[in-house]
């Protein structure tokens, strides 16, 4: 019994020392893309039709196609690398609406799908809005990449 206690104390001390010596600023210095787009119409929630589809634009931005004209840009709270590989997308809704800050999306072909909350929803009414959204997302990614390269 004494051997197990000694082993546990040793492991605990090694973990504590490892955490204490890890640089806290290394991850904080990384600039992430700013996906706040004042040019697009932001909505808190919407009610999708029965036949909607979703596709990932990158690890943090998804496009939900609700009808021929109406699409929604979903910005997630954080990136998920599962979306980088064109994973099928699942959504967990708590009502008939899709709501920012409440509903979660999943990359379905990962070993352990983790739900990520939708942070912001933008409504794209026409082709011009869709093209503008593509441009804004690309610019945000390029600005973050340039800031991290410095």
TrEMBL record:
A Pfam family: DUF6491
InterPro entries (UniProt xref): DUF6491 (IPR045500)
Highest taxon of the lineage: Bacteria
Statement: the UniProt record of this protein carries the keyword Signal: yes
Signal sequence, start to end: 1-20
Keywords for this protein: Signal
Name the record gives this protein: DUF1254 domain-containing protein
Species of provenance: Neiella marina
